[in-house]
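Moderator note: this is an archived Q&A kept for reference. The question asked for a predicted structure of one protein chain; the sequence and the answer are reproduced below.
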Amino acid sequence: MRNINKYGLALLAVCMLTLSACQPVAKIENASVDLSDKFKVSMAYVEVTTYPWETFQSWKQGDPGTSGGYGIAVAKDEIIYPANKVIDATDIKVKPFGQDDFVKASVKITDYESNLALLKLETEKMAQPMVPVEFYDIYKKGAEVEFFKLKSNGVVDSGRAFIDDHQVSGISISYTRHLYFKLANVSQALSSGEIITLDGKPIGMGSWSSGSNSGGIVVAKVINHFLEDNKDGVYKGFPTPAFSTTRLIDPTMRRYLGVPAEIKNGCYVTNVNPIGTGADVLKKGDVILAIDGKELDAYGRYMDPIFKEMSYYPLITDKQIGDNIKFEIYRDGKKMELDVTAANFKVEEMLIDYYTYGKQPEYIITNGFVFHKLTRPYVTAQGAGRALPRIEGYLNDESYKATKDRQDIVVLTFTIPLPTNRGYQNYSQLVVKNVNGTKISNIAQMDQLLAENKEEFHVIQFEGNYPDLVIPVAQAKEIDTMYLPKMYGIKQMKNIEKSKVN
C-alpha cells in the first residue's frame, strides 16, 4: 500500500510538472491569435493597377500590370502603403478586414524618399471605419518580431523574424537615406506593407526583401514623422543633406585643414550641392565636428543612445522642414558654429531627375529625330555600360547641380529611319548644346526655339566633336504631321512641361 502511494505521488508530481511546463507554451501559441484579432481591424488588402510610359518611345505606354499588397490604417479611412507599390498607378482598390467588396482609393501623399504613401479610401463605400494603428519607437537587437497581413481572401496571415541590425541607407527608388531595421530568419517573404510588431506593439511596416529569409522595415520614427508632417494638411517631406562627406583619418590632411592635433573627431565635406540642407552655408573642405551637439567621429558617425554608432543622416532627416540645426565645423583653420535650416528639394529641381514616377517622359520629335530630357531612368534603361561616358558623367557628377542657365540636359536619343534623315541614323546619346544659334537651358526652351524659327533650316549643335544637325523646317513639318502618324502611328510629337520656359 505504501509502495502504491509512493508511486501515485510520484506520478502526480510528474504530471503537475508537465502541466506547468506546458503552460507558457500555450500562452505563446495564443499570442499570435490574440494579436491577429487585435490588429485585423487595422489591416487591408490593396490591389494596384499600373500603366507605365515607355522610356525611349515615350509616346507609348507599356503593358498594364496589377499587384497586391497590404495596408495599415492610420485613420478611419486612410492607410499607409509602400510608395514603390503605387508608382505609375492608374487604379487603386482596397479591401478592409471584414468587407467583401473593394473600395476605391486615391493617393493623398507619396514620399518616395521614405517609401511611404498615404491612401484615402472612399468613406461612403466602407462597411465600417478602420481602427488606426499607433507606432512605437522600439529597438531590440536580436529580438523576435511578428508580422501580420490581410490576404486577398480576407484571411489574416502572420509570420516571424528576428531583428538582425539597424542601418542608415538608401533604397533603389530614392536618392536619400533613412533609418531601417534589418530582419533575419524571416519565415515568409516580406516587403509589401505588413504590420511589424515587437512585444505586441507595432514598430514599423514591411518595406523590402533581400533573398528568401531577410528583409527590411520602415521604422516607427520615420512613419510618425511622415504622419506628423501632414497634420496641417501641407506635406513638406523629410530634410535632405545638400552635402556629402568622407572619413578624415589622415593626420597630414587634418593638419593641412588646420584641425588641432588634440581634436580627433570630425569628417570631411567633399561636395556641396546647390539644393538641400546646408546648400547655402557649408563649403567643400569644411570639417564637420558636431551636429546639434552630437559629436561626429572621423567617419561621420555619432553615438546614439539606442543604436550606438550611427551615420549623421538621422540628425538631419529627423527634423521638420524649416527647423534650425546647429553645425560645429572647422573652416580655414578656425572653429565656428553655423545655423543651418533643414531643407529638401523636389526631384524636378535636379539637373538630372532621379525619377519620373507617374509622369510621361519629356521629349520632342522632329523629322524623325527623337530628343529627350535626360533622367536617371533614361540612363539606367540603357543597361550597364551602354550609356556613353559623357552621359554617365552628367549622371554621376552633375545630377544635383542645376543652375539658372541650365535646368535640363537634352539628348538626341535615336533617329527614326526616314528617307529625309539619311546619314544621321546612327546619331544617338548626343547632348544638345545650341538650337538655332541659342544655348539652351531646358527642353521647353528647345521646343520654343523650334516653334518660333522663321528661317529655312533648324540648326542643332552638340557637345563634343560632332557635325551640326541641319533640318529643313518645311520638310520637318510635313514629316511630323503626315508621315510619322501614318507610317509609325506616332500621334504625339512632343511632351513638354512648360513651367521652365525662359
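Archived answer notes: Confidence is low (pLDDT under 50) at residues 6-30.
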